[in-house]
Design goal:
about 325 residues; mainly alpha; 16 helices; about 70% helix
Length: about 325
């Protein structure tokens, strides 16, 4: 089997995947009382998928991925409030804004060690948070950007209080991005990214343009994170400085720790497990839910993800990689 046939085989959809996504898209109607948390899971999954693209496939570590998440959220919210409350146009604006920021920041991850990249990416998010705080005449500052009212989706579907339209909207965007990223990582470009991740010097030696590839994938990941931020602002009607804070980047990293890096379903599985645990535990003990999340992560590391999440990880193989 030649490499092109191998990539084509990996990109083919399995029957169980079609069933899984059909159930996911129907879940806001099948579980209408849980539509709000389904919407949150879809947004977190999209955010995690964006981080996995650069971490699991290109080997770029980041603690400031919230910069693009927040940029997309504020861009979409400001567009809805000041220009036009159309959700799809606002989503495009959020994605383009985050893409531009990602392209500008991509130069910062091309040199230095992993520790350097961690500090630089974290610094970018902190700078944006402070800018959003100072530009209170535009962003609302510490009070956040309030009064964001979205128009009906596709001119027909109103954003209702039970969150059904929001959940369908977020799941639809997640599926679209997943399909595009699946094609990307199972293409020659994706194979090149893995070669760079495994040995950058060897990739340079065989003539791969390492910097160009890393810049492109970083910009694409920023666009995906911006889409997740846009969805959050549009479906909640609010954007705040909290979107840029360190805990956003740390939380999405934890999601990948739970689900696994280097396979596309890792972020989705991690988002489901993390958000359901957070919702269940916080309803029982609102003050100490972080302790139990931390205990679960310790057990995950000690016991191993393959044992705790064996059915999920088995299903995910072949859908975009196998690193954990």
């Amino acid at each position: 089997m030649n490499p092109q046939q191998h990539l084509f085989r990996r990109a083919r959809w399995k029957p169980w995947e079609v069933v899984l996504w059909a159930l996911a898209l129907a879940s806001p109607y099948l579980l209408s009382s849980h539509a709000l948390i389904i919407n949150e899971i879809a947004i977190v999954a999209l955010f995690a998928l964006s981080l996995d693209l650069i971490l699991g496939y290109a080997g770029i570590v980041s603690l400031g991925h919230a910069a693009f998440f927040g940029m997309g959220a504020y861009a979409a919210a400001l567009f809805a409030k000041l220009v036009l409350p159309d959700p799809l146009l606002g989503l495009v604006v959020g994605v383009l804004s985050a893409s531009l920021l990602g392209a500008l920041c991509s130069a910062s991850i091309l040199r230095g060690t992993d520790l350097t990249r961690l500090m630089v990416t974290l610094g970018a998010a902190l700078i944006l948070m402070e800018l959003a705080n100072k530009l209170d005449w535009l962003t609302g500052g510490a009070d956040g950007l309030q009064g964001v009212v979205m128009g009906p989706l596709l001119g027909r579907f109103e954003f209702d209080l039970n969150g059904r339209t929001a959940a369908c909207y977020s799941l639809g965007v997640l599926l679209l991005v997943f399909v595009l990223v699946r094609q990307l990582v199972n293409s020659p470009f994706g194979a090149t990214l893995k070669a760079i991740r495994d040995n950058r010097l060897r990739a340079m030696a065989v003539g791969i343009s390492v910097n160009a590839h890393l810049s492109v994938v970083y910009t694409v990941a920023a666009a995906m994170a911006g889409a997740a931020g846009s969805l959050l602002a549009q479906t909640t009607g609010f954007a705040s400085l909290d979107l840029f804070e360190f805990h956003r980047s740390a939380e999405v990293m934890l999601v990948l720790v739970v689900g696994g890096v280097g396979w596309l379903y890792g972020g989705i599985v991690g988002a489901i497990v993390f958000k359901l645990m957070q919702d269940a535990i916080s309803s029982i003990t609102p003050e100490y839910w972080t302790f139990w999340i931390g205990l679960f992560l310790v057990l995950l590391v000690r016991v191993g993800r393959e044992r705790l999440l064996r059915p999920w990880t088995w299903f995910g193989r072949g859908a975009g990689g196998g690193r954990t």
